[in-house]
Each structure stands twice: as structure tokens, then as C-alpha cells.
Amino acid sequence: IGYMHHDPNRPRFFAYLSLFTFAMLMLVTADNLIQMFFGWEGVGLASYLLIGFWYKKPSANAAAIKAFVVNRVGDFGFALGIFGVFVLFGSVNLSTVFANAASFLPAEGAPAGAAVLTFLGHALDKQTALTVVCLLLFMGAMGKSAQVPLHTWLPDAMEGPTPVSALIHAATMVTAGVFMLARLSPLFELSHSALTVVTFIGAFTAFFAATVGLVQNDIKRVIAYSTCSQLGYMFVALGVGAYGAAIFHLFTHAFFKALLFLGSGSVIHAVSDEQDMRKMGGLRKLIPTTYWMMIVGTLALTGVGIPATVIGTAGFFSKDAIIATSFASHNAVAGFAFILLVVAACFTSFYSWRLIFMTFHGEPRASHEVMHHVHESPPVMLVPLYVLAAGALFAGIIFHGAFIGEGYAEFWKASLFTLPDNHILHEIHELPLWVELAPFVAMVIGLLVAWKFYIRSPELPRSVAANHRLLYAFLLNKWYFDELYDILFVQPAKRLGRFLWKTGDGTIIDGLGPDGISARVVDVTNRVVKLQTGYLYHYAFAMLIGVAALVTWMML
Fold this sequence. Notes:
This protein has about 550 residues and is mostly helical. It has 3 domains: about 1-95 and about 115-185, no CATH class; about 190-385 and about 425-475, no CATH class; about 485-555, no CATH class. Helix content is about 70%, strand content about 0%. It has helices at about 10-30, 35-50, 60-90, 95-100, 125-145, 155, 160-170, 175-185, 185-190, 190-215, 220-240, 245-270, 290-300, 315-330, 330-360, 370, 380-405, 410, 425, 435-455, 460-465, 470-475, 480-510, 515-530, 535-555, and strands at about 115-120, 120-125. Strands 1-2 form a two-stranded antiparallel ribbon. A hairpin with a 2-residue loop joins strand 1 (about 115-120) and strand 2 (about 120-125). Helix 12 runs antiparallel to helix 13 (about 290-300), helix 14 (about 315-330) packs antiparallel against helix 15 (about 330-360) and helix 23 (about 480-510) runs parallel beside helix 24 (about 515-530). It starts with 9 loop residues before the first helix and ends with a helix. The mean pLDDT is about 85.
């Protein structure tokens, strides 16, 4: 209400928000894949409407279309996966599917069975068919949860109002993919190959998004890439079979990420809608409440806590648990994921504290007029921050036992399925001390480097960027994914569209169709019209010819 106070289109905003809420409830309460798909698409539609809420801004329109199109790619895979489930199990009801899923578990030494599914011309046996179906379902999750290579829509979605950013990027839409995979754990748990792919994609996304977040200057885009990275952590947990840890991080992430987004909205509100952190600075004493709320969110995001104890922020419990599960999984891809996640934790700490230092510390870099009007947000905007801050600080301490600890079985009951030989949540309590210390050390390194760069030696970032110009440009341009997609997909699609428009529609269809027929009729009538000269002797001559022809015919 506070953020949209001055917007003339508030009724439309809350109508879209209600649609979003309805679609999300439809998604999470579904007991069959058809209802889940309708909720899934409803969430996509509502996000399109909310991202493009300020439709008079070309950038908002472009961002909304981009989000819609990229999600359609993932949703195409999701739909194929649902069709595949129906072919394999004869039902889309989740309880029926799960009851029959165990028959797809390969027996020891059993030969490959008969083909049960044909996909792209290949006949697939039971185990392969299940893997293909799981990968197609995961393709839907990749689009919705912004995993590489379907991640490009997420940062552009910042064009919507800040509450939309908090809603979409923190608690709901982007976590729908994580929810879906956890909901379908009885299927994914039976396909080791699919889970390996999930682990790899999640780890790579966590690392990729963290590297891009290092150099972003838009305050909301930094947090957007942070979201992308944290979703990667959740998918790693899903991929190694630690579904409880994934949902635990989803739960805690909602608190501190919504806190950071709404806090950044409070900052933007204070500095006359400026989002570039290079034009901020020195705001700590002017908006102290927002500052401390952002500090709490940053502590939770970076996972501040005391290793090997139960003292820490929400992110400390959930993120460190995911890093531990990746180490405990004992396979090559999970080991690779462990390394990437620890490095990503260091980068996360760096860009999170970089945001704090650039925005609130140092000398003011905004104009004197802007600084003169800086003011704290009204209570209607600050009260939600207090609530979220409480969750960011204490949710981990309160709930870690239920999600991943001794209360796991009682809390989840049969909601999450794991094979009898999956003991990963027990194994994380028996790891070497250095594994527990690794994310803590990475977090401290990130904090110290950020302090050195932006507090102790503020001129250092500029010189480092100048000395590593190619790397800086590579990260600033987001690994050139947008440019690559523009070359591979956007430009060819535009050229094809132009060809079909000019040649196909203009020349062939219109030329041989309506326009061609009308042109031939005009040609004929133009020739006929020439017979109407208006001269009397022409008509007399024609009459003579006619009479002569008539007489000749009668004499025959």
C-alpha cells in the first residue's frame, strides 16, 4: 500500500496481485498435474501482467514479453513431461502416479525391459522413459525458477513495481520450480540420471549468477542475481536427494530476500527513485531503520552464524546444510557442486556487502537536491520489514529441526519420498569440521574483500576493473547470454518473420489471393471501359457491324 501510494493504477495492481495469489494457491494445492499446470500457467500470466504493469515504459513491456516467451520454452517441456507421465502411468493424479512409480525402479541385474515410450523417434524402456519424463518436467522448473540457460528473464523482471519484485523473486513464482520438483520427489528419486542433471544445472547457475552479481550497479538487479544464485543452491539440494534441505532454504530465503527487496524499495523511495548504487552513498544516518533492516537481510543472505552450533541467521542453517549435502553425496557431480557452491558463497558475501557499503557508507554521491529530500519511509512500509527481519533472524533456529533435523519424519510424514538407501540428511551430521567451516570462511573472505574495496580503498574497484577490462566486460554483460540468444534466436526469428510478411503474406498470399483477384478484375474492367468512347460515329459503326453480322447469319 505504501509503495503504490502515489500510483494512479492501484486498483489494477491489486487485481493482478489477487490473480497471482489465486494461481499460486491453485498450483500448491493441486493433487493432479493438470490442475498444477493451470496454476503454473496462471502464475506465468500474472507475472507477465505485473512485470509490465507500467506499460507506458518500453523497457517494462520488453521485460514482460521476455519473461513470457522464455517461460513458454520451459512450459513446453513441462507440458511434454505431463503427457509423458500420462503415457507411462495412465493417469495424471499424483497419488496414482506415485503408487505405480516403484515399478520403474530397476531390479539388480535385470535386463532392459520392453519399450514403453517413443520420444523423438527413439523407443525407450521403463528406466530411460522415466529419466526423459523427469528431465522434461525439470525443463519447466528451469524456466520458472530461472536456471541457466532459461535465466535471462529474471533480472529484466525488475521493471515491475518493487512489491512485485519481492513477491516474484522472493517467495512465490521463482520457487514454484523448486516446489514442483520436491512435490514430484517419488518420480525424481527413481532417476539418478535426472537428479545428476539437476545438481549440475543448479551448481552452475549458483556460480554463474554470483559472478554476474559482483559487478552489477542497479540495486534491484544485484538482489535479482542473488535470487537466481540461491535458487541454484535449492536445485543442488534437490539433485542430491536432500528435498527437506531444499524446501528449508526456500522457506528461509523468502524471509531475507523479501526483506532485501522491500528494503531496496525503501532506499529507492528515499532517493527520488534512483536505482544506481553509484549515485547513492552516505545514507546510513539519514534512513537508519532501512539501513539496519538491510543489514539483517544481508546477514541472513550471507549465512552469518557460528559453525557447529545452533546460533546463526536463517540463511546460515539452510545454505550451509545444502553445501554439506553436496559434499555428503559422494559422487563426482556433487563434489563439483560443493566447490562451486563454496565459491558462490564467497561471491555472495562480497556483492551483498558491496551493496551495503556502496548504498549506505562513504560520501554521498547523489546531487545536493536529492540528498536534501532523503527521508525515512512511512510506518506502512517499515512494519513489514520488521516482520521479515524477525523471520530472517530466527526462522532457522526455530525450524531447522523440523525441516532437516530430528523432527524430519514427523514434520514431512509422507510428503517427501526418499529411497531406503538415501541417508544424506543423517550423513551431514558426521562430516569433517572443515566442511562445516568452508562456507563460513568463504563468507568472511567475501566480507573482508568488500570492506577493502569499498571502505578502506574506494579507488581500488576502478583500478581492478581497468586492469581486467575483458573479465569486467564479460561479467557486466552477463556472460553475453543475451547477445548469444539475440544472434541464435531473436535475429533469425525476426528475419523469418520479415520474409514471411513481405514474401509469404505480401507477395504470395495477397498477390495470388484477394489483391491479385481484385487487380485482374480492375484490368478487365479497364479494357472494357475503353470500348465506351463517347463518340456517336463509333456507336454507328458498331451498329453497322452488328447489322451486317445479323444479316449474314440469317442468310446462311
